[in-house]
Amino acid sequence: MQDYIDLAEKNGVTLLASGKCQFCGANTKRGIHECLEIFNLGFQSIDFSQVKNHLYRFLIVDAHTLQHPEIHGRWNNHFHLTRLHLIFKYDVKWAYKLSPILSNYLNTYKANKPNEYLTPPEVLKRGKITTTDILENATNETACKALIVKWAMEVYNKWNNHLAVVDNIAKGFLDGN
Ligand SMILES: [Zn+2]
Description:
By secondary structure, this protein is mostly helical.
């Protein structure tokens, strides 16, 4: 994430240093920078070292990335939307070891579709729940987990224009594994 400023520049986006997050609308004072800090350090009520809690880490990364595609490379959208699709639609029990397998599958896929681009939903229309909502409202582990699932589901639904594309990728991934 250190290079998010460079990525924004590459994507032609000027990052605003104050106010709400310009991408997700989180109730921050230092914009995307604070939104990323919460993403990186927040949600401490969950013990992410436990395998049973890994799912929430994946959902956080997917939801946040898809709410902020301007600070990521374009193929990250394929990866994170496909992963949410595999988790929500195909009930895949995601594990860390599956991520490089999906990445490898996508590397082959994108070589055949170099111009495919998943146009993100408009800024501020990528799901109502944001990092600050979770920080403010998730007062305990159970509430935090429930809100993270809701957050990821909302973002996933906002990207539904591309579900046919990611369903195709998901099937290819499942066939190969
Ligand atoms: Zn944000």
